[in-house]
């Protein structure tokens, strides 16, 4: 339920992008966490360093269909593998539900 990978996959899914990880990338992330001896917090830190740039660049590109993180991406020696749509995809907009205040005013 609280899996870090699923959280990042869900965040990119909001932009209609499928996020995938190679098995070798998952092993590299686990090896880094073990080397740092930091546990789950270390995993989050490693994941953020791997995915942070993508979180800023992918939403602005309407053609990105999927992103695959490889071992080289985790090591910093390579880039993630991106696949693209033929036509731009309309992104969903996130709307906030309005709440009524005490006097039936809408916030």
Q: Which features characterize this protein?
A:
107 residues, alpha+beta, 3-stranded mixed β-sheet, 13% strand, flat
Q: What distance separates the N and C termini?
A: 32 Å
Report helical residue fraction.
Answer: 40-55%
Structural class estimated from helices and strands: alpha+beta
Radius of gyration: 18 Å
The oligomeric status of these chains comes to single chain
How many beta-strand runs?
A: 3
- Secondary-structure element order, N to C: HEHHEHE
Our count of helices gives 4
Overall body shape: flat
Strand fraction band?
Answer: 5-15%
Strand order in space, largest sheet: 1-2-3
Q: Please mark out the parts with pLDDT under 50 across 5 or more consecutive residues, or reply none.
A: none
Major sheet characteristics: 3 strands, mixed
**What is the mean pLDDT?**
85
Structure, described:
With 107 residues, the chain is of the alpha+beta class. The protein has four helices and three strands. Helix 1 runs parallel beside helix 3 (39-57) and helix 2 crosses helix 3 (39-57). It is flat. The chain starts with a helix and ends in a 23-residue tail after the last strand. 17% of the residues are buried. The model has no long low-confidence stretch (mean pLDDT 85).
């Amino acid at each position: 339920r609280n899996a870090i990978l699923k959280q990042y996959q869900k965040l990119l899914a909001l932009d209609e992008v499928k996020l995938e990880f190679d098995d070798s990338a998952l092993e590299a992330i686990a090896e880094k966490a073990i080397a740092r001896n930091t546990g789950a917090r270390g995993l989050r830190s490693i994941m953020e360093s791997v995915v942070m740039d993508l979180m800023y660049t992918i939403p602005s590109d309407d053609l990105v269909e999927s992103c695959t993180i490889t071992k080289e991406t985790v090591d910093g020696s390579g880039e993630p593998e991106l696949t693209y749509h033929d036509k731009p995809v309309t992104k969903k907009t996130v709307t906030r539900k309005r709440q009524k205040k005490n006097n039936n005013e809408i916030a």
